[in-house]
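Forum: Protein Structure Q&A
Topic: Joint prediction for protein chains with partners

I've read a bunch of threads here and the consensus seems to be that you should model interacting components together rather than docking separate models afterwards. I'd like to see that in practice. Below is the full input, 374 residues plus whatever partners are listed. Could one of the regulars post the assembled result?
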Amino acid sequence: MTETAAQPRVPTRDRILFATAELFRRQGYNGTGLKQVVAEAEAPFGSLYHHFPGGKVELGEEVIHSAGAFFQTLVTAVYDADATTEASVRAIFGGAAETLEATDFEDACPIATVALEVASTDERLRAATAAVFERWTAALTERVGDRDKALAIIAALEGAFVLCRASRSTEAMHAAGAMAAALVADG
Amino acid sequence: MTETAAQPRVPTRDRILFATAELFRRQGYNGTGLKQVVAEAEAPFGSLYHHFPGGKVELGEEVIHSAGAFFQTLVTAVYDADATTEASVRAIFGGAAETLEATDFEDACPIATVALEVASTDERLRAATAAVFERWTAALTERVGDRDKALAIIAALEGAFVLCRASRSTEAMHAAGAMAAALVADG
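Posted by a regular:
Agreed with the consensus. Here's the joint model:
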């Protein structure tokens, strides 16, 4: 398989990052092998170490940061499209429920899985997940005007992903969204 | 190492289940190898397949069910010790924060990590995590009197575990607890 045959316009490094994020979402960090990454990315094996000399940990770190930034952009765009804080918060959970259904409950947050897997075993990856959550918290605190409320909303969203993927139902996402919306309704 | 030398009173099967639950909490399902399980359980390798002929999947399924029942007993005991719904909900999150601190953020929910790792890759294990969350939801629904509120509270708790382990701070657990307590304060 040649590097440029399948997707000539997307640089190899980006294809590797994208494929890894997708694999982390579906099967986590420990369940994802580098051979599978290069196969999904349609990249030669050598290109992985060329772009990520530190191997799996460096690739994981990079994916956490880039996926974190991607989701932050996505979520703040959804948030900022609504007029009130309550409607914005509700829209985030509604959008998450739609994505879960549209992807047959495969596309959830890639950060959460890795965060739980590596929190006690890899300090570099733990720090990367912490940095992503901290940036999300700062962006949401700016919008809802309260750090504790922002943390609680992100916790509700992440936990709802866990329940929804397990149950293959969006019920928990809607329930968590109603609680989060009520939290900011008075403020 | 003989089977009975280290912990003569705990049956081998229970030692294997306990060690596996502990390993799942710290490093997830995919990160846990059977050799590590028998080493931690101080059990001969053959005993694993004697007690769990279906190997890792059967062991995983059994750990999910038994850890799920264990946590349900623990959490409902904490819940039922308080007089009001609000105080009970607050006590659950307070207890979770204390456990995280006391175990240096290692002891979190073993169900959540496995649920995220296997939701798209192993149907038997996904169904086991779904069954545990459903039993928790039923027990909490009985207590708070509303299924959506119960789901939202469990989501907040599970998501707070994710954020707390990543950040090595209990801040998100307390913030999520305040939100969950407010949710039931009116009811």
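DSSP finds nine helices and no strands in chain B.
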